[in-house]
């Protein structure tokens, strides 16, 4: 069964929608974006979030110290690294997160953290060569998104899903890029990913749409 991530949560209404339909993950975007939230805003939104939904923080070329600050302040379960960061960055982040976990700081306890913080690394897919570096990264999962020149994601376009099938040899795959209730079944049947990651596909006029979220999650789960 493919899990579901609703990314770009930024309003109380959005939290209400996901609490109602219960995707496995939601994403807070901390990188430059129209969906961007502050660490403090994410914490406040997270307080109203069903504890059964895991919180993912999305970062693009962010300093390690700022990522750790976000994990602490927003109570993140997963860190999504979406920029040009290399394998060394991921390894150093792992060590910092391990130290943070050992500290048992109050922010993490208040956030009801149930284990270590995972790291997901994003690869923007243009062709087969886009995936050639995946073997060098030791992440808990890989998100495959569509390559668009000058953008780090969130453009609502698909890519060749057969490339995602080939990428599964490198680890767990989360499929992103242009997913909607109209194509998610085809995407899942081809790739069989760990999760389906959607943002603009469940929005209307740039804001999360309850009906689209309902349709996306209902369709994904009705075909299990």
Question: What does the model show?
Answer:
- The chain has a single domain (3-222), classed as Alpha-Beta Barrel (TIM Barrel), CATH 3.20.20.70.
- Helix 1 packs parallel to helix 8 (210-222).
- It has an 8-stranded parallel β-barrel, surrounded by 4 helices. A two-stranded antiparallel sheet has the order 9-10.
- It has helices spanning 12-21, 39-47, 64-74, 87-103, 106-110, 161-167, 184-191, 210-222, and strands spanning 3-7, 25-29, 54-59, 78-81, 118-125, 141-146, 173-175, 195-198, 203-204, 207-208.
- 36% of the residues lie in helices and 20% in strands.
- It contains 8 helices and 10 strands.
- The N and C termini lie close together (6 Å).
- With 224 residues, the protein is of the alpha/beta class.
| CATH homolog superfamily | Aldolase class I
Q: What is the CATH T-level topology?
A: TIM Barrel
Question: How many distinct domains?
Answer: 1
Strand content: 15-25%
Give the number of helices: 8
Strand order across the largest sheet: 1-2-3-4-5-6-7-8
Low-confidence stretches: 106-114
Secondary-structure-derived class: alpha/beta
By DSSP, the count of extended strands is 10
Order of helices and strands: EHEHEHEHHEEHEHEEEH
Strand and helix layout:
Layout: E1 3-7, H1 12-21, E2 25-29, H2 39-47, E3 54-59, H3 64-74, E4 78-81, H4 87-103, H5 106-110, E5 118-125, E6 141-146, H6 161-167, E7 173-175, H7 184-191, E8 195-198, E9 203-204, E10 207-208, H8 210-222
Parallel strand pairs: 1-2, 1-8, 2-3, 3-4, 4-5, 5-6, 6-7, 7-8
Antiparallel strand pairs: 9-10
Helix pairs in contact: 1-8, 2-3, 3-4
